[in-house]
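This section describes the prediction task in plain terms. A model, or a person checking by hand, is given the sequence of a single protein chain and must write out its three-dimensional structure as a string of tokens. No templates, partner chains or ligands are provided. The sample shown here is typical of the held-out split.
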Amino acid sequence: MAHDHVTAEVVVDGVAAFVLLAVVWWLYFDFGSAAAEVALRARPEQAYRIALQGFVLGHFLSVAGVMTVAAGLGQLIAGPDHVLGLRLVCAGLALYLTNNAFLGGRLLRVPLRRIATWYLPTIATLLTLALLTHHVPPAAAVLAIAAVMTATSFLGLRTNRT
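The expected answer:
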């Protein structure tokens, strides 16, 4: 947010970007590590396979997704091309969430119905925003994405406790 002329839109973009990254962090560390712990305790005989696939191989797409989100946020806040920035954010989050859904279903054996409750609405929102990039102001898009990701994390929290 180190612009020569800081506007309200730049501040809103920066705050929403921070919220978005905090939610991604929350999903990763709270839900991911808790789910992995449950899987490792439930199937100790498969601990090596779970650790290899989840912690080693599973991190490649998560990191790629987060890096793509960061590049997109940089374009949205400081770059001249907000269309590219929003599409990068949407693509990075879609990659991150698809990887989480795959690992949750395949590795951690989370029922597909539980995954679909958070995955489908979130992906639909990201796709819609990516298609409407020319019509949505960057600040509104980042706020919408942050709100959807926050709702996704709370939905995941509620379904993980039931």
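For orientation: The radius of gyration is 17 Å.
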